[in-house]
Amino acid sequence: MAARASTFLALLVCLSTTALVRAEDPYLFFTWNVTYGTISPLGVPQQGILINNQFPGPNINSTTNNNIVINVFNNLDEPLLFSWNGIQHRKNSWQDGMPGTSCPILPGTNYTYHFQVKDQIGSYFYFPSTAFHKAAGGFGGLRVNSRLLIPVPFADPEDDYTVLIGDWYTTDHKVLRNVLDSGRSINRPDGVLINGKSGKGADKNEPLFSMKPGKTYRYRICNVGIKSTLNFRIQGHPMKLVEMDGSHVVQNTYESLDIHVGQCYSVLVTADQEPRDYYMIASSRFIKESTNATGFIRYEGSSAPASPVLPEAPTSLIWSLNQFRSFRWNLTASAARPNPQGSYHYGGINITRTIKIVNSASRVDGKLRYAINGVSHTNPETPLKLAEYFQVPEKVFKYNQIVDEPTTENDTKIIVSPNVLNATFRDFIEIIFENHEKSMQSYHLDGYSFFAVAIEAGKWTPEKRKNYNLLDAVSRHTIQVYPGTWAAIMLTFDNAGMWNLRSNLWEKYYLGQQMYFSVLSPARSLRDEYNIPDNFTMCGLVKDLPKPAPYTI
Fold first, then answer.
1. SS3 of residue 175 by DSSP
2. Is 447 in contact with 96 (CB distance < 8 Å)?
3. Fewest CB atoms less than 10 Å from the CB: which of 77, 245, 330, 413?
């Protein structure tokens, strides 16, 4: 009898353990070997950054709440980090992969990232955040599919394609960095790429994608470049916009889309034209001498060539601004959770703080620097997050060197220093971006999505709030700011951690147009933020310090 009871108890334990294992969200494991390799995307041989010998890097295909584990082997000759554009890393800025949160992966070593795509869906990408590596490659697509039980507001497509568009320099990334370090600008890019190809070289006769007549396909288009807004269009095929930056949107149809640096759009395209080849085009916007890349889509069973007449891109800024205003959040669609997106009524929340962000450029000691509110960020040897976690921030940086309402003096007088602003946990905040410069701007905020409620010409005043979209502005992570305009976003700072706000224009990012928000939970609880990972690399002042007491529930 005792033996039977013991066997029964063991079976219960086994079943309970199995249930726990099954209840855990699935894991996806990747090993990346990061190396240099010779690439010639614009016909000029140059040193590129390859992941597992691929340029662009491999796509990550995940589903909501998956755990992603990536073991990165750095076989470059420089320190390396990867960041995950648009992934929120809830409670886990340790995995954000920015110089302000992580020690770099040194040459000849490896580091394993482990993060969860918690409560997210949509189209994203990853990139190297160190040095000027992004100008050499190392980027790739990252998609988060909806769980099977969550309805998606469109029928399953025949196939799902990733399209990485971006401007490109033929100059070596180290040479570009040296130019910037000397205090000069790197000027205009040399061309544009679509999935690492320009459509002008030896690969111009190879189709990028294929479609079956009568079928509908999803194209996830991300601007992974470093300077240029790009207009994307497909010859003879309108595009139905269904998702951007992780949100389902009202499904309007567009002949072309302006995609700003750091943004990702998903469109549906139906193969309903005469079977033949059709060009897709990505061309630069808002610069004097536009460049473009082409690739073509082939209808299966057809060998008829594409028409050489390419659809023209729009030319005006107003066209682009009006397109932004046409984007609407799909209030009835579910995103990562069963409840509709529109069940979150952001327009009825009281604003507790307004922060104005003004970008500027000037010279410091004769060298070009870019700034936010008069402070040009520089990365200290000790990452900001580590200094804060080990409770020695005063030895590394000073909080709140910028003010919420910058003065005109901040436009011309710049100081070079780590730029960290405190934000109160769970405050609902309004951020105003004012672009006083003559070039395009694109801002990205790590760790969050925000509501892009307005873009207008001129300077912002409180009276402008009456023009905000407080009902169905798209929740997203990147916002463009046209020359001479302002943009307003709203969000709740409910994700504890150290989070980077940056210009996506990489020259400006590299020369200081970025900052960090420190969002601390006063409870110091695992409910709000995870402990430092056991495998986390230490560096700088904290390298030999004992770890602080871990957070508890």
1. helix
2. yes
3. 77
Could you tell me which of 186, 167, 197 has the C-alpha nearest to residue 55?
197
Give the integer Cα–Cα distance in Å for 283 and 522. 48
CB 325 within 8 A of CB 317: no
Residue of 452, 418, 421, 455 whose CA lies nearest to 440: 455
| CB 541 within 8 Å of CB 395 | yes
- For 97-123, the pLDDT digits (tens) are 999 999 999 999 999 999 999 999 999
Strands (E), 446-547: 450-457, 475-476, 478-481, 485-492, 497-503, 514-520
Q: Residue 458 in contact with residue 432, Cβ under 8 Å?
A: no
Provide φ and ψ at 468, rounded to 5°. Answer: -70, 150
Encoding tokens for residue 301? 């069973």
22 in helix, strand or coil?
helix
Whether residue 479 contacts residue 452, with contact meaning beta carbons closer than 8 Å, is answered with yes
Calculate the alpha carbon distances from 91 to 388, 475, 499, 525 in Å: 15, 19, 11, 10
pTM over 0.85: yes
Query: What tens digit of pLDDT does each residue of 323-369 get?
Result: 999 999 999 999 898 889 999 999 999 999 999 999 999 999 999 99
Residues 145/218, Cβ–Cβ less than 8 Å? no
Cβ contacts of 168 within 8 Å, gap of 6 or more: 41, 42, 189, 190, 191, 192, 193, 198, 225
Q: Tell me the HSE value of 73 on the side-chain side, using a 13 A CA sphere.
A: 10
Element (DSSP H or E) covering residue 5 = helix 2-23
Structure tokens at 526: 């695992």
DSSP 326: H
Residues in the chain, pLDDT under 50: 1-22
Handedness of CA 263, 509, 101, 33 (dihedral sign): positive
- In angstroms, the first-to-last Cα distance of the chain is 42
Which DSSP state fits 148? T
Cα-based distances in Å from 287 to 227, 405, 515, 548 = 10, 31, 27, 51
HEC sequence for 53-120: CECCCCCEEEECCCEEEEEEEECCCCCECEEEECCCCCCCHHHCCCCCCCCCECCCCEEEEEEECCCC
- Considering only CA atoms, which of 244, 102, 224 is closest in space to residue 167? 224
Helix (H), strand (E) at residue 16: helix 2-23
